[in-house]
């Protein structure tokens, strides 16, 4: 049973959605304002948050930024806004998925289950940390260290690095990164990947001209590999 927090101000949507999700086996709590939702997310620590953007006291995207500053709880944005630019902004702000109203409870339930399957804990309960050279990526704690020193990353930067660290030495295309990390199965947002790679390189103490871990393969994608050991 997943513990869900639904942040939705429209009673005609909130009530039937709570009922339908509970019928599908979830424990569902709800909040009708952004600040109440933030308080409940921090105090109750749900497994996943379903967030509407059109809240009465604060735009949902601003709430998402506030939540991401203090928590890595998975967030599915559920809203009537269907503009592609808005979707990209919300995903870049840290949302794990985005569903456009109107949608059925079955559709939302499927997305909830898909996002939770991508959770950080390994199925065997063992340490799932990935190590590439001096870089250690721990998805359970969502922590990264480089040569033993902690590296502070945003949730999206962490997800990007974790995806690459799981494929050391392989060239990963921007299309794959958009699909698997940003959950955007369409084109037009390659710049999003470029910007996040630039931020990630800076935090790893390198740049595109002098790469150590992140190597751009022009026209294809990016490859993460350990620096060569100098004799």
TrEMBL record:
Q: Which PROSITE patterns does the record associate with it?
A: OMPR_PHOB (PS51755), RESPONSE_REGULATORY (PS50110)
> Which SUPFAM superfamilies did the record assign?
CheY-like (SSF52172)
Gene3D superfamilies with a match to the protein in the record? 3.40.50.2300, 6.10.250.690, Winged helix-like DNA-binding domain superfamily/Winged helix DNA-binding domain
DNA-binding region boundaries: 127-226
* Modification sites for 4-aspartylphosphate: 52
Alphabetically list the UniProt keywords. DNA-binding, Phosphoprotein, Transcription, Transcription regulation
> PANTHER family per the record?
DNA-BINDING DUAL TRANSCRIPTIONAL REGULATOR OMPR, REGULATOR OF RPOS
Q: What is this protein called?
A: Response regulator transcription factor
Q: Which organism is it from?
A: Micromonospora trifolii
Per the UniProt record, the lineage of the source organism begins with: Bacteria, Bacillati, Actinomycetota, Actinomycetes, Micromonosporales
């Amino acid at each position: 049973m997943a513990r869900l927090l639904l942040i939705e101000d429209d009673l005609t949507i909130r009530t039937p959605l709570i009922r339908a999700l509970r019928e599908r086996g979830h424990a569902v709590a709800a909040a009708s304002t952004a600040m109440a939702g933030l308080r409940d997310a921090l105090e109750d620590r749900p497994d996943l948050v379903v967030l509407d953007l059109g809240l009465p006291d604060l735009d949902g995207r601003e709430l998402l930024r506030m939540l991401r500053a203090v928590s890595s709880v998975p967030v599915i944005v559920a809203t009537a806004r269907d503009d592609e630019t808005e979707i990209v902004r919300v995903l870049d702000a840290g949302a794990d998925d985005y569903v456009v109203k109107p949608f059925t409870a079955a559709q939302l339930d499927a997305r909830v289950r898909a996002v939770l399957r991508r959770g950080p804990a390994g199925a065997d309960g063992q340490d799932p940390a990935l190590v590439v050279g001096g870089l250690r990526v721990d998805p359970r704690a969502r922590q990264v260290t480089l040569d033993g020193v902690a590296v502070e990353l945003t949730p999206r930067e962490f997800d990007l690095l974790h995806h690459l660290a799981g494929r050391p030495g392989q060239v990963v295309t921007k299309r794959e990164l958009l699909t698997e990390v940003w959950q955007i199965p369409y084109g037009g947002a390659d710049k999003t990947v470029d910007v996040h790679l630039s931020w990630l390189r800076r935090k790893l103490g390198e740049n595109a001209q002098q790469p150590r871990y992140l190597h751009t393969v022009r026209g294809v994608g990016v490859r993460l590999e350990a620096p060569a050991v100098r004799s």
